[in-house]
Write a structure and sequence with these properties.
The chain has about 375 residues and is mainly alpha-helical. The chain has one domain (about 1-365). About 65% of the residues lie in helices and about 0% in strands. The protein has 13 helices and 2 strands. It has helices spanning about 1-5, 15-40, 50-70, 80-95, 120-135, 145-165, 170-185, 190-210, 210-220, 230-245, 270-300, 305-330, 350-365, and strands spanning about 110, 115. Strands 1-2 form a two-stranded antiparallel ribbon. A hairpin with a 2-residue loop joins strand 1 and strand 2. Helix 10 (about 230-245) packs across helix 11. It is globular and about 55 Å long. The protein starts with a helix and ends in a 5-residue tail after the last helix. It is an enzyme of class 2 (transferase). Its main location: membrane. InterPro entries: FtsW (IPR013437), FtsW/RodA (IPR001182), SpoVE (IPR013438). Its EC number is 2.4.99.28.
């Protein structure tokens, strides 16, 4: 492994530039979307820059961590995989020691305004585990009992812990990424079709067994049936996107962020982008994510080994799945769920761990030229 470091090439500059652009846009839009509510909130001491400061700090810490992981050979993660998996389980369990927020227990309070969301770590831990294990398993991945079910059980365990925190959206992301990695690893199509059906059934049960999720689903089909209740958020999002038109009303001039869309700097920040920057702004964001996915796939295809290919596939899939779900939710193409828009939505844990993962992805891109 020591020879690998000496043979590292340059990073994928287009991938790096895309990531940094998304982060920069995210910090600007978090400030734009949150400044009004922060100024009129006693919880933020009437500081309009409250969320900007926190997101800006998270962005700086994340970028520093990304540059750190860019320089570390990704193969070195193999020896720490078990430790990371155990630590993640401990953190996922630790959230239950803290009071619930809006009925969900997802955060570990670190004191003051700072908190840690372990589910953001779990998404990548599952990818790291699968990449290492499948790399050593080889062609046995084509076996259902030995090659597929064990990964489904491990991923299901982590997804189950996240689901227990009342976080169906991230649990769904974990299972979807698991299926993508298994498919790329060479699992049989017949097995994959069965797994997709099983995961889909679990998703349906997760919705049906929780009344509030069922209400969200039915309101998605016709949000105007309950415009002041479950359909409220989607209706306000559509109003924001519609009022933005092609060019938008201008940066910082959103009306829907003025207490119409609840917490507009979080999961529905894309609707504020649509209102302020219009169709043009939304298109630019979508193009940036398409470029990211494209370069992530190129990195996976050109990786020097199976481990790198699966790791790059998993990391790219985590971002891609979240981006697709978020845009679909905000535009009313699927039921409302709490999946943040990667790099752009407010959230320190999400941004920092996403950027750490980007460092790993860029490190894989540094080694793609060598065999």
């Amino acid at each position: 492994m020591s020879k690998t470091n000496s043979k590292m090439g340059s990073i994928d500059f287009l991938l790096f530039s895309t990531i940094m652009l998304l982060v920069a846009i995210g910090v600007i839009m978090v400030y734009s979307a949150s400044s009004y509510s922060a100024f009129f909130s006693s919880a933020t001491n009437h500081d309009s820059m409250f969320y900007l400061k926190k997101q800006g700090l998270s962005a700086m810490l994340g970028v520093i961590a990304m540059f750190f992981t860019i320089k570390i050979d990704y193969h070195k993660m193999k020896k720490y995989t078990k430790i990371l998996m155990i630590a993640t389980v401990v953190l996922l369990a630790a959230v239950f020691a803290f009071p619930a927020t809006n009925g969900a227990r997802r955060w570990i309070r670190l004191g003051g305004p700072f908190s840690l969301q372990p589910s953001e770590i779990a998404k990548y831990i599952v990818v790291i585990y699968m990449a290492k294990s499948i790399d050593s398993k080889g062609e046995k991945i084509k076996s259902l009992t030995y090659g597929v079910i064990p990964y489904l059980m491990v991923s299901g365990f982590y997804a189950g812990m996240v689901l227990a925190e009342k976080n169906l959206s991230i649990a769904t992301v974990i299972m979807m990424v698991t299926l993508i990695v298994l498919y790329v690893a060479g699992a049989k199509t017949s097995h994959m079709l069965g797994l997709i059906g099983l995961v889909g059934l679990c998703g349906v049960l997760g919705i049906v067994l929780e009344p509030y999720r069922m209400a969200r689903f039915t309101s998605f089909l016709n949000p105007w049936q309950d415009p002041k209740g479950d359909g409220y958020q989607l209706i306000q999002s559509l109003l924001a996107l519609g009022s933005g038109g092609i060019w938008g009303v201008g940066l910082g001039r959103s009306r829907q962020k003025c207490y119409y869309i609840p917490e507009p700097h979080n999961d529905f920040i894309f609707s504020i982008i649509g209102e302020e920057l219009g169709l043009i702004g939304c298109t630019i964001i979508v193009i940036l994510f398409i470029v990211f996915i494209w370069r992530g796939i190129i990195t996976a295809v050109k990786a020097k080994d199976t481990y790198g290919t699966l790791l790059a596939t998993g990391i790219t899939s985590v971002i891609a799945v979240q981006a697709i779900i978020n845009v679909a939710v905000v535009t009313g193409s699927m039921p409302v769920t709490g999946v943040p828009l990667p790099f752009i939505s407010y959230g320190g844990s999400s941004l920092i761990f996403n950027l750490i993962a980007m460092g790993v992805l860029l490190n894989i891109s540094r080694q793609k030229e060598y065999s």
